Amino acid sequence: MIPNTIRCPYCRTALGVGQTVRCSECKTVHHAACWFENDGCTIFGCHGQPEESSFAALPVLPALISVLASINSTVAVLLSFILIPALIACSYSALYHSTLLIRSLAVGTERSREMPRHVAFLLINLAPLIGIYLHYFSKV
C-alpha cells in the first residue's frame, strides 16, 4: 500500500521538511525551488502570491546575532555558542539569495518583483560577515 503523502504539484515529489511555499489564493503547497522555477503557483488559472510564513524573519536572525556579538566582547562571549553557526547561516543565506538574484536577473522581468527581497536579504546577511571580518582581521 502506498502511503498518502502530500506532493508538490510541480515536480510531483513528496513535500518534506524543506523550504515550502503556500499560495495565497488556492493554498496549494509547493517546494520553494519549484515555485520560483515556475514563477508562481502551478495550479491552472491561479495568480496567487506566496504567503508570508511565520518564519519570514528567520533569515534575519543569524545576522542579528552576529551584529549583537560585534557590539562588545561581553556580548560576544555570551553569544559565543551560537555565533559560529549564525555566521555559517549568514554565509549560506547570502549565497542562496545571490544565486536567486542572479537567476532573476537572467530570466528577465518575470521575476523582477522578487529582486528587492533578494537584494535586501543579501545585504542583511553580508553585513555581519563583513563587520566581523573588519573587526577581527583588518587590525594590522
Could you describe the 3D structure shown?
The model has no long low-confidence stretch (mean pLDDT 75). Helix 2 packs across helix 4 and helix 2 runs parallel beside helix 5 (115-137). This protein is 52% helix and 4% strand. The radius of gyration is 19 Å and the shape is elongated. It contains five helices and two strands, in the order E-E-H-H-H-H-H. It has helices at 32-38, 61-69, 73-78, 80-107, 115-137, and strands spanning 20-22, 29-31. It has 140 residues and is mainly alpha-helical. The chain folds into two domains: 1-53, 2-Layer Sandwich (Herpes Virus-1); 57-140.
- As a whole number of angstroms, the C-alpha radius of gyration is 19 Å
Instruction: Give the helices and strands as they follow along the chain.
Output: EEHHHHH
The biggest beta sheet is recorded as: 2 strands, antiparallel
3D shape: elongated
Q: Largest sheet, order of strands side by side?
A: 1-2
How many beta-strand segments? 2
User: Which assembly state applies to the chains in this document?
Assistant: single chain
C-alpha end-to-end distance:
66 Å
Compute the number of helices: 5
Arithmetic mean pLDDT? 75
Number of domains: 2
SSE-based structural type: mainly alpha
Give the DSSP E fraction (strand runs of 2 or more residues): under 5%
* Uncertain stretches of 5 or more adjacent residues: none
The percent range for helix content is: 40-55%
